[in-house]
Structure formats: C-alpha cells, structure tokens
Amino acid sequence: METPFDWVTVIIFAGMVVLFLQRSSMDEPPDSIWQYLPPAVGCALANYLGNEGYVVPAVAVLIAVGVYLIRVLHVRMPGA
Known about the structure:
The chain has 80 residues and is an all-alpha fold. The chain has one domain. It has 3 helices and no strands. Helix 1 packs antiparallel against helix 2. The chain starts with a helix and ends in a 9-residue tail after the last helix.
C-alpha cells in the first residue's frame, strides 16, 4: 500500500464485496456474480497502471469502473 492507486482500488473493491454480500443475501438477487468481474479486473488494471506511472490511463479506468458500477450494478450514490 504505497501509492494512492493502491488505496483507491482497495476501497472500491471492498465496497464491491460489501455490495455483493448484501445483494447475495436477498431472496432474489438483482445481479449475478459474473457482473462483478469487469469492475474487479478494472480495479486491478487501474492499480497496475497507476503503480507503473501511467496516471491518466489509470484514472480513465477508474472512471470507467465507476460508470460501470452506476450503470450496470445500479449503485446509488450517497445522498441521491
């Protein structure tokens, strides 16, 4: 945990784990486990790119992960 990308991607991934556990305990889960794979891979890719010094592509991947979470997994933002 040396760079900001380490912290940001771990926080996003931890949030996805909590979301998955919360939704999987429902009687009829609204999504499948496979829908969590693209943002998980995106977090890993963004972390790798950020640690290698490719800041702009890493931020772009993190934005894409955020858009995926909102559009596909229907994550509501706090206060919305």
